């Protein structure tokens, strides 16, 4: 009974055109006709049947790329078994691990078909299209290889599509590694359509000139190549002037395709040669395809990955498994007959990646690939969700930087990645293989004219040769182990130039003067975090964020950094007051820090405000407050610092979230000391009821959440910081976004500060306050009648506590939204109006 469409298609070719060349093995010069090929396949298949091999039984194949491997593949498919290629050159420990994971009792090697310990495989099960056709191993995150088991249904749909998509009878080079899934397209689609498979020896695969000569001399018509091999082939062709004019069809897969000048010139010289970009994980093989259209001169530098092929449903979803609108980035999930059964003998790993479809269509595979789908259904690859490169909040596609690097005439190959340096700061590193001496400065100068400043690598590491995996891909794990070159610390007199260069890289322009404010020329809280992170690394001592708030011009920052010792208050815990926005010094509005102790979240509010006041921030400097410190004690520290800046009232105070609760206590202490507090603004803050949950502050769940987060980080030695700071999680805990460049030390200190402040708030018992209070209430939180009732109850509880003038001012947005770009201008407008009214009332009195 026929079990494999692919095998039956090859056998049919033997019946109709048996004398045609099926296989040419360059290693030994042998050839096989279709009749000879099928004869050898059937002999091997008979031995497999005698050993008990059938459906659901893996066969380990320890052969390199050769005619014997082609025979073994077809023989295993003929009996309905699972073809499991293993590189015989693998280290012994890996061979042992793969064999153990497979549980294969039958092996095909140079010695022929052998059974483990002389055992015969158990009786075969009836054939089903769901039976595994092959098992290919991929690297596992735990170091244990994972075997992807692809059913016959998936393999057959792929080969049917490949046959329909291409021309029949093409001479095709067998280039890919036997453990790479593209091998099945090379071998089966060629033999199923009457083509000749030319098997390249290893030395040809690794030598671009030998590869070019092989294509010319063997009249190769079709190639399947990863991008790196295609780029090297194109460069060699362009450099030598040798054009392999027999080529009709090139398929690239396995790596991000870049259309470099060499590739454009190569395909222009070829004329009508077709270039396809194939995309898909091993767990689904091929899922999308794009044929690059028209003139190579018009091809985009970063081509799309195309549209789904037959048997594939692609979904672009968010983290709640909801469809992402066209044009937005989401994770790619794949459904359909393309899916693997899962990971061989690894049910837990299978359950993690192969998930139930909310649409009731069975299973989906979570690829981990981030894509964007355009209106015409074309998919564009963006990056990986798990190792995506991000610099100061910008997504950086490694391929784009690598494309710029290899454009240098002496750069042979390049790769980029993120590396952690001082204090967990992540920097972009370029790994460069060059012909002859090439200094890091030459590399940086080259790419500086091609890329935005945030894409410029901070380090350049020279490599003699680019490490590669067995499938020919760049071994990025090996690159990450290479030592980084030391930085040269700039002398103090060069600090202004160093800061200027850094601002240009961070801001993306040089349109500022030495006395321009960083935040007035395009800087924001994310970029500020990156500036101080890089400065800490370059000058070799920690720099706090508050330094940039207080010294926000190049000249002021250079003066601040020119002092001896750390630019930090890390050995003390105290209040620190910094200028957020200049204004008339006669009146100052003090904004009190939220949970994490930092003030950058107020920068947008201050920028939007038109009030004729100077806006200062009261932040927490240095070590986090000791856990168990009361809110009154934290407030007293701030009051002491406040009165050194402004000894007498009247004071204007405001704070968002926890900052409003702390401002309430600061106002209490100031009035108790006889000072006048003319203005107290609570920006969706309430010292009695948590405005988010509607629970009493003493019962807020946020303290428990922070305790859990800190404990989890302790257990994992900080490994969870990256996950915690992504998306909305950090904003909801701390109130402000965080830069990807923020050091782990800074993030942990902010968490410890938040934890201590939240504990203090939970234990706080506010006293009645007789001064004027303005409550700026987030009206966007009222998504239901119950929410409106909850907010009314919170206001009533606060009104009962405030015995003086009490004003409620609705502002659009939810608790966090009132401080963000979409609503902060309205919040600032209402704050300005309240300050003006309070100033008028003060003048009248």
Automatic annotation (TrEMBL):
Entry's InterPro entries?
A: AA_adenyl_dom, AB_hydrolase_fold, ACP-like_sf, AMP-bd_C, AMP-bd_C_sf, AMP-binding_CS, AMP-dep_synth/lig_dom, ANL_N_sf
| Annotated Carrier domain residues | 490-565
> What Gene Ontology terms describe where this protein resides (cellular component)?
cytoplasm
PROSITE patterns the record matches = AMP_BINDING (PS00455), CARRIER (PS50075)
SUPFAM superfamilies tied to this protein: Acetyl-CoA synthetase-like (SSF56801), ACP-like (SSF47336), alpha/beta-Hydrolases (SSF53474)
What is one process in the GO biological process aspect for this record?
A: amino acid activation for nonribosomal peptide biosynthetic process
- Per its UniProt record, what Pfam families does this chain match? AMP-binding (PF00501), AMP-binding_C (PF13193), PP-binding (PF00550), Thioesterase (PF00975)
What are the required cofactors?
pantetheine 4'-phosphate
Name any one GO molecular function: phosphopantetheine binding
NCBIfam families per record: AA-adenyl-dom
Identification of the protein by name: Amino acid adenylation domain-containing protein
Q: Which organism is it from?
A: Streptosporangium becharense
